[in-house]
Structure formats: structure tokens, C-alpha cells
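call fold(seq) -> C-alpha cells
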Amino acid sequence: MGANLSNKRTKSRRRRQNSEINITPFVDVMLVLLIVFMVVAPMMTVGVDVNLPEKNSPSIEATKEPLTITIKKTGGVYLQNTLVNKKQLLARMKVIYKNNPNMIIFIRGDNNVLYGNVMDTMADLSYIGFKKISLITKQKN
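ret:
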């Protein structure tokens, strides 16, 4: 009978399952995802790459997604991320104005672009009827 008791004890020890949850793989995956998002997030900014002028000005708080027009130093004009010529830009902006006359428009002009190019674009937008036009700059450090 004593041998039977020791056999039952060893069998119950062998069959006992580990009820602890191993969270090490979960933590590893979360850290990898965190690093990936930290690296990718700055690349997800919408827009065409331009060298914006640096100015001290307050930040603009927009509740809706603004429409961005970018003017590169080469003279190329982009509506959001699409390269357009002046005629296409005006035609598209007229349609946008008819659908949403209160649209906020951000103009991003390269630091080396001619001032007249930016002003011509602003004048064209104003002529169409847009009233909320803002120039985008980088914050000075």
C-alpha cells in the first residue's frame, strides 16, 4: 500500500500543468511594433517634400482636414500629393469651392520659391472665393 501512495504522488506531479502565462513573447512583439511605429510615423506626414521657411508663429488648430497646395522651388504645384498645372489647379479648386466654400487651404511654399509664385496662387484662390488661406512654415527651434 505504501508503494501505491508514492506512485500516485509521482504521477500527480508529472501530470500537473503549468498554469502561469508566459508574457515574454507578447512583450517582445509589442516592443517591436512600438519601434516600427516610431520609425514610420514621421514618414506618414502628408505632402510633398519642400524646404519650408522657419518663422515664429502660433500653430494653426484645424478641426477638419485642410486642403494643401505645395509649391516646389522648381515651380511645380501639387494639390495634396498630385502634380497639377495652373489650369488644372484652378478647375479643381472651382469644383471644390462649389462643394465646400468654407474649405481651409494651406499653402506650403518652398523656402527658395519665388514670392510671386506663392502670391499668384493665393490671388487665384481668393478670386475663386476662398477666404481661409494660410501659409505653412516650420517652427524655429
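The chain has a mean pLDDT of 78.
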